[in-house]
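Notes from the 1:1 (GR / supervisor)

We went over the backlog. Supervisor wanted to see one worked example end to end before approving the batch request, so GR pasted a single chain during the call. The sequence is below; no edits were made to it. Supervisor asked that the structure be written out right there so they could see what the output format looks like.
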Amino acid sequence: MRLQHRIAIVTGGGYGIGRAIALAFAREGADLVLAARNRSRLEETAREVQALGRRALVQPTDVSQEDEVRAMVQACLAAFGRVDILVNNAGIAGPTKEVADLSATEWDETLNVNLRGAFLCAKYALQDMRQRRQGVILNIGSVAGRIGYPRRAPYAASKWGMIGLNHALAAEVGRYNIRVNCLCPGTTAGERLSRVIAAKAEAEGTSYAEAERWYTQQIPLGRVIQPEEIASVAVFLASDESSGMTGQCFTVCGGFVMH
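Structure output shown during the call:
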């Protein structure tokens, strides 16, 4: 098992990519702290983790709120004694609007969850990691942080910012034997994608099927990515198999980024 005896915090662990990463980590021997705003979804993931023979702590957390993030990390330390791995996965899709039509509130909400949240989680997890001089931080970005999307400026800006945060963190904490990498998924199957496609169709006055077809036509593999395909790369980046890699950004998108 590649993550035997590791303690991992996975934010946004209730569904989609976060859930897939949590389950993949559990299969590889890790115990989990699952953080997100929706307790019931976290509890569903926790039951699946426990069915795999691993421990899971459910910690409802709004990652944009500093007090809640601090409490989440403290709960991890109280339950497990350390933080070996932090996966900054919590995020929201944000609005589907042109910049001229955005409100400042919509902009702030997206950046607060997607980027401020990653900063806060790293800030508090690093206090333990630096002291022990070891750890792994995995930031979940997006191809939107590599190429940008029209009508998705807040989301794209947050993910470009995630890559910048990733590189700066890696440069800062390498001397503590802490590795920091970014994983950028492409169009990934799940509830969020369905909502994004529906919003795109509404904004452009097209059908859901036409909006969905636009996404798949941009992907050389001709299909969307499955959350489990993201999770398998996350396991590699969290494990000692990638011990010589930090400050990198890995795209799993079926070739979409080439467009």
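Supervisor's comment: The chain has a mean pLDDT of 95.
Batch request approved.
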